[in-house]
Design brief:
Length: 364
């Protein structure tokens, strides 16, 4: 039997007080600036965020963009799939339709922003979209990160890889071992089956925690040393609720308002309370909070994930593990892909959607 080292023993995470809960700008300060642009990122930092959440897609010539949708259509003057078009001569000329008009930023430009001396406290939560090939995406990200001296201590610890699909786990460990891994999602069963042993945290839709099952999961994560963040929290009552949960971070488009509210609560803890009629009606105020919505969403998300690849983790071989299998990645039986999955995959690659759209009025 191998000896259990201290690193294998889960270290419980204390319940965070309001002052310790971080604000992460969702696509920057996207409530009032074009999402996923350098202007939005800089504004979020200026407004007091502790971290930035953004998304990555790779172009046909291998350039990594900070962009949410698989297509350019929804937010820019461009058209079509990003992965089918080059940066050079094409996407480099695309601009946002929302003012102030901005170019699409590159991953290396955002990393440069984070490495400016005044921004070295900022975390970057990178949503690794499933339309990417992780065997191409992660090596290029690693190349960019490794250009910086002392990147393993000054940069990588601030980078969180947000993984939707289990097929992204082995490549992320192979190419970006110094970066933190979180699963992004809605489904607690999927977390337990595929991500629990391989991620140090989970970025969950706010609604997934709005029942007793979600709260029990949150408590278990805290006991087992797993971080939890919630998205996308823009309503003030949801902000108060998320702060009251004691999570690591809250992702919001409204960075300025969240920081303001958090400071108000620090100064006067009674402002955390939801009072009056809202105290009774808030838990029932959105269809997203209902158990039936959770069941339907989990089912649809499961179909979406399977459409992007078989739901299993391919083991990676590390010679140092030959005599100790404690750290071995489990292998799961592949599920069978059918015509329905193929249809969903084609839809997901041609439309401006991702799993978050299931819970939002606008694409998340």
């Amino acid at each position: 039997m191998s000896q259990v080292t201290p690193t294998q023993i889960p270290i419980p995470i204390p319940f965070r007080q309001p002052k310790d809960i971080e604000c992460w700008g969702h696509r920057g300060a996207s409530a009032h600036l074009p999402e996923n642009t350098l202007a939005s990122f800089r504004a979020a930092i200026k407004e007091g965020c502790d971290g930035i959440e953004s998304d990555v897609h790779a172009t046909s010539d291998g350039v990594i963009l900070m962009f949410h949708d698989p297509t350019l259509d929804r937010t820019t003057t461009g058209k079509g799939l990003i992965k089918n078009q080059p940066w050079k001569g094409v996407i480099e000329h695309v601009r946002t339709t929302k003012e102030p008009i901005q170019p699409i930023p590159l991953f290396e430009e955002l990393i440069a922003l984070l490495m400016e001396p005044e921004n070295r406290h900022v975390t970057l939560n990178i949503d690794c979209k499933m339309q990417n090939d992780p065997e191409k995406l992660f090596p290029e990200m690693s190349r960019i990160i490794s250009k910086y001296p002392n990147h393993s201590t000054l940069l990588s610890p601030r980078l969180i890889l947000g993984l939707w699909h289990p097929l992204f786990i082995p490549p992320s460990m192979k190419y970006l071992p110094n970066c933190t891994r979180y699963h992004i999602g809605f489904s607690l069963p999927i977390i337990r089956e595929y991500f629990w042993d391989h991620c140090s945290g989970f970025s969950l839709a706010f609604s997934a925690l709005m029942n007793s099952t979600g709260q029990a999961f949150l408590n278990e994560c805290r006991e087992k040393g797993k971080e939890v963040t919630v998205w996308t929290v823009n309503h003030e009552l949801e902000m108060k609720t998320a702060i009251g949960w004691g999570v690591k971070a809250v992702l919001t488009d409204r960075v300025g308002r969240f920081v303001e509210l958090k400071n108000e609560i620090i100064d006067d803890p009674s402002k955390l309370n939801i009072t009056g009629l809202s105290k009774l009606t808030f838990p029932w105020s959105s269809w997203r909070y209902y158990t039936l919505a959770h069941v339907i969403t989990r089912s649809l998300v499961g179909m979406y994930l399977k459409a992007h690849g078989q739901m299993y983790i391919t083991p990676i071989h590390n010679p140092s593990d030959d005599n100790d299998n404690d750290e071995q990645i489990d292998s799961f039986t592949p599920s069978t892909g059918g015509s329905a999955n193929s249809t969903i995959r084609r839809m997901s690659e041609s439309l401006s959607i991702s799993p978050e759209f299931l819970l939002q009025k606008n694409p998340e």
